[in-house]
Amino acid sequence: MKIFLKIAFCVLLSLNLSAQIGTKIIRNGTLHLGNGEIIEGGVLVMEQGKIIELGSTQKGLYKNAVIIDAKGKHVYPGLIAMNNIMGLNEIDAIRATKDYNEQGEFNPNVRTLIAYNTDSKILPTALFNGVLYTQAIPQGGVISGSSSLMKTKAWNWEDAVVKADEGVHLNWPYLQIAGMDPNKHGEKLIAEIATFFAEAKQYQSMKTPVFNARLAAMKGVFTGTQNLYIHANDARSMLRSIHFFKNNYPEIHLVIVGGQEAYLIAVVLKEFQIPVVLGNIHRLPTHNADGIDQPYQLPAQLENLGIKFALSFEGSWEARNLAYVAGTAAAYGLNKEAALKAICLSPAEIMGVSDRIGSLAVGKDASILICNGDLLDMKSSELWQVYLCGEAIDLNNEQVKLYQKYMDKYKLN
């Protein structure tokens, strides 16, 4: 009996795997490629977790393929949420569930990779709205640690990782504006940053150094294999940080995170080709003299100035609203396909994974969203089917179960 059950289980498992990795053809949908292009009534073929054909008509012949009719629907690449702590934070009021902040000021050796919790109840809520990838970032201190790009659906962190330790995060000290008392604490921290980077640079050049975990963790930053994410919002702090690194360490790849006043330093950002990961634009303006809709217009301003940028939504639970942030940007001057690019291809390019994800293209992972309405519109957006690396994803989660429970209880269906 046990042998029979084992054989039956193996057969069912093999049938399930073959169904997941077999050929699937999406037809008749509007394909939003994520790079600014649209194909009306297009065809997308995926096999073995990859996109193998894409265009306005089907060219290849595929036996036993599963046909998915997407007529009247929209097809998008999976969304990428940058600059958040999903998978590192569960309940804000319970300290034991928060794993994104370590003690100390300089912790480049701290890795969010190994703290990422794939069993988090938050991840399915983001997946429900099309967020298939997340950049899990550390917080706290001056140098918080390194971030990694992860899938929002996986068995464990080893299975979830897309790119490990893709960048180190530096919180640049805020300095008070001219005419006020100098911020002695901020200047002290900047001096400590200068000392730390000088030591880290020297450590990399030593032939047989005594191992130092903090200094060794900076190797990728100096070799250019890791980004240095500078968290800063005001123009003065951004300029100060950019000039410090370009004058002393021009080999470092800089990315500004936050960037509320990025439009004020557009010339510098463009000159040094520094991308910006914008924080939440659903906020009040920075200055009283700014228009109430200045934050909403910021993405369009950067696009018009030729500055590469990505949209993000800080936090954990809040990241599920990423698509609607892009929708707001589209309503305030940004082209809708450019808004989609800011949460798909641009994040992938910034993190160096655009050869795998971020857009619909032959050879890339088949991470695909099929939506009944406009993905960027909160009112009409309704995901119909989702595929992560070619695997169909169940969008059911705890919130959906609770919704259905009380709809049934009070007979609201």
Unreliable stretches = 9-19
Shape: globular
**Subunit arrangement of the protein:** single chain
The radius of gyration computed from the alpha-carbon positions, rounded to a whole number of angstroms, is: 23 Å
**Helix coverage percent:** 25-40%
Distance between the termini: 44 Å
Structural class: alpha/beta
Number of helices: 13
In CATH terms, the superfamily of the largest domain is Metal-dependent hydrolases
The CATH class of the largest domain is identified as Alpha Beta
What is the tally of beta strands? 16
Question: How much strand content do the residues show?
Answer: 15-25%
Strand count, sense and closure of the main sheet? 8 strands, mixed
Number of structurally distinct domains:
2
H/E element order: HEEEEEEHEEHEHHHEHEHEHEHHHEEEH
Instruction: Provide mean pLDDT, rounded.
Output: 91
Describe the structure.
It is a single chain. The protein is an alpha/beta fold. The protein has 2 domains: 14-78 and 358-413, Urease, subunit C, domain 1 (Roll); 79-357, Metal-dependent hydrolases (TIM Barrel). It is built from 13 helices and 16 strands. The strands form 2 sheets. Strands 1, 2, 3, 4, 5, 14, 15 and 16 form an 8-stranded mixed β-sheet that branches. An 8-stranded mixed β-sheet has the order 6-7-8-9-10-11-12-13. Helix 9 packs across helix 10. It is globular, with a radius of gyration of 23 Å. It starts with a helix and ends with a helix.
Which helices and strands, and how do they pair?
Elements: H1 2-21, E1 24-32, E2 38-47, E3 50-55, E4 66-69, E5 74-77, E6 79-84, H2 123-128, E7 131-136, E8 143-151, H3 157-160, E9 161-171, H4 184-205, H5 213-216, H6 219-223, E10 227-232, H7 235-248, E11 253-258, H8 266-271, E12 276-278, H9 294-304, E13 309-311, H10 322-331, H11 336-341, H12 345-350, E14 368-371, E15 383-388, E16 391-392, H13 398-409
Parallel strand pairs: 1-4, 1-5, 6-7, 9-10, 10-11, 11-12, 12-13
Antiparallel strand pairs: 1-2, 2-3, 5-14, 7-8, 8-9, 14-15, 15-16
